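Sanity check. The docking grid for iron/sulfur cluster depends on where the pocket ends up, so I'm generating a full predicted complex first rather than guessing from homology. Inputs follow.
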Amino acid sequence: MADISRLPAPTADQYDWQFEGACRGEDPEAFFHPEGERGPSRAQREAKAKAICATCPVIAACAAHALSVREPYGIWGGMSEDDRELIYARQKARRNIAIA
Ligand code: SF4
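Predicted complex below; grid placement will be based on this.
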């Protein structure tokens, strides 16, 4: 579940970018995995969604949003759940190095 405490204030300005998304009108099932999806099916679905994201004029805003609220599910800003987890792990490693 997304951590809604990280969400920006619910003003239209914060979410206007969503109206420009290349995924508008696309099948949401391309962006969110069904229960139990694994292997090649998952890889193909994610590749299809990422191809749409690659054409998106608001990919940077979408990616920033997904990372800031730690969206737990779906393809956002051209990133899968696993892609985002890798980024979080790298951020954590950098913080640990900075502290040490
Ligand atoms: S980057 Fe991808 S998920 Fe985000 S708005 Fe664009 S098409 Fe949709």
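Relevant for the grid: The mean pLDDT is 92.
Also worth noting: The pocket of iron/sulfur cluster is lined by residues 21-23, 52-53, 56, 58-59, 62, 75-78 (CB under 6 Å).
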